[in-house]
Design a protein that fits this description.
With 301 residues, this protein is mostly helical. It has helices spanning 33-53, 71-93, 96-101, 116-134, 138-162, 201-222, 232-248, 278-297, and strands at residues 10-11, 18-24, 27-32, 177-178, 269-271, 274-276.
């Protein structure tokens, strides 16, 4: 365990996962930042897509893919896809053994444990079902969802920071953050610093996968007319997220189940002096698929 203060470390601010809680007559309710991030992300996404459907000039043939009133139905499908896919993805990709032994724990979503790659797969399935049922062009709907997805991702990463979870590997850089809790302060055996400051990788991801990716997609959609090439924005989002996540994984602490004395960084596949984490393994197909979609769909409709 680490002890005294190091002058270059940034101490974690006094933040709590709960915004407020109510306990009346045995009934308790707590609004957490993580839940608020999901709610805000969904609402912001709904509003932007609604406005996009009111701008037919942005779309192929100057025709929006669906009437604005139908966006509310799309939101319902997306919410179900995110929750089911994100939870099942976490169960299958990260802790299958634990949940196989404790199947009832799978339903306890409120305790945390969501995987982006699973949520992404869930949204794809939900979006395809929605498009088929309502006769909506799937690539155009995918572009609309791709444009707003970084908002929810960025807000989710900020809530991860507030929750002091998913922090990075130890660092001596001046912006390293000393996160609370014994796990965050469990330093490597060769660590010589007095405090275990770590990369704030939640903020790295909020910037790359959230703010930067949204800015690029918004610029392409509103300034460069890319919505007229169905699927092009989807390709940029898929490849952009994969690249951002792949890069940040070099600084992110791997999940505990992948860390062993002979594998302290949590690599699951060795590539000479480097290694790939589970997050990088799941991001590689996204990068390849995104680039392929971009080259395939980037043409006038």
């Amino acid at each position: 365990m680490c002890g005294a203060m190091t002058p270059l470390a940034i101490m974690f601010p006094d933040l709590r996962p709960e915004i407020f809680s109510i306990d009346i007559g045995g009934f308790s309710f707590a609004l957490r930042w993580y839940a608020l991030a999901y709610i805000a992300g969904f609402l912001a996404g709904w509003w932007i897509i609604y406005r996009l459907m009111q701008r037919p000039a942005l779309w192929p043939g100057d025709t929006a893919p669906m009437p604005p009133a139908r966006v509310e139905g799309l939101l319902t499908y997306v919410i179900v896809g995110v929750i089911l896919g994100g939870r099942l993805g976490y169960v299958l990709f990260y802790q299958p053994g634990y949940y196989l032994a404790n199947p009832t724990e799978i339903l306890r979503v409120w305790e945390g444990g969501m995987a982006f790659h699973g949520g992404f797969a869930g949204v794809i399935v939900a979006g395809l079902i929605f498009c088929r049922r309502h006769g909506v062009p799937p690539w155009q709907v995918a572009d609309a969802m791709a444009l707003v997805a970084p908002i929810g991702i960025g807000l989710g990463r900020l809530s991860n920071f507030v929750n002091a979870e998913l922090w990075g590997r130890p660092t001596t850089l001046p912006w390293g953050v000393v996160f609370p809790g014994p796990q965050a302060q469990s330093c490597p055996w060769d660590w010589t610093e007095p405090l275990c400051a770590r990369h704030p990788t939640q903020l790295y991801e909020a910037a790359l996968e959230g703010a930067v990716l949204f800015a690029v997609l918004a610029w392409l959609a509103w300034r460069r007319g890319w919505l007229k090439s169905p699927g092009a924005l989807t390709g940029v989002f898929v490849a952009g997220y994969g690249l951002g996540r792949f890069a940040v994984e070099f600084f992110r602490q791997a999940d505990a189940q992948f860390i062993t004395p002979g594998n302290p960084l949590g690599h699951v596949l060795s590539l000479g002096p480097l290694g790939l984490t589970m997050g990088q393994l799941l991001s590689l197909p996204m990068i390849i698929a995104g680039v392929a979609i971009l080259f395939w769909r980037r043409r006038p409709a």
